[in-house]
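Re: the 227-residue chain
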Amino acid sequence: MAQPGQTLPGWPSPNFGPRRHGALPDLVVIHYTAMPGCAEAEARLCDPEAEVSAHYLISASGAVTALVPEELRAWHAGAGQWGQCRDVNSRSIGVELDNPGHAPFPEAQMAALETLLADLLHRWQIPPERVIGHSDMAPARKADPGPRFDWQRLARRGLSVWPGTGCEPGDFVKDAKAFGFPDVAPDLLLAAFRLRFRPWARGPLDATDAALIADLAARFPVDRPQI
């Protein structure tokens, strides 16, 4: 296991394959481990019978362990979609955070994540709007990294995005899909959007939800042509 502030290579996970159709990483997917501790999470991510993995695992103390080489396809995303991308594993780098799913993310862990993300986005030329959560691309199945994850902090550092308040409410479902959320039932879309951007909001869809997703769709349309 790496020490805080250190990244250990070595690629200990056997759970990977080639990226399909010559794909290169243009997404980063953030997860939580939902396991008792980092050692247990690493053991599972390296267990060939589990058939799951990620490129990186970050402990609560900020230690970063590299599990799969970035040029290869780790098995972290499963079924899901972001924009027109349906094979998210082939197009993404997966980052697991040691967290049971209901606890705050420690400062050392967030700082290590920020350092890693800044490096990944620079080297692979990934725009910040393509740093997403597992729950964003698979809202019917997943809730990670969960309501305690500080997306706004990442956005302030240019490592993700956050909605502004300058747009008028529009068609929530249409705008959610334009931003990248998959084609799922409207209630699942609302739940996924709120989990990331309004985690403590309750009740039916409201004008604030519609205005915020309209802003994201206008500024960060997921399948816009790359210049």
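Helices lie at 38-45, 88-91, 107-124, 134-137, 151-156, 172-179, 186-197, 207-219.
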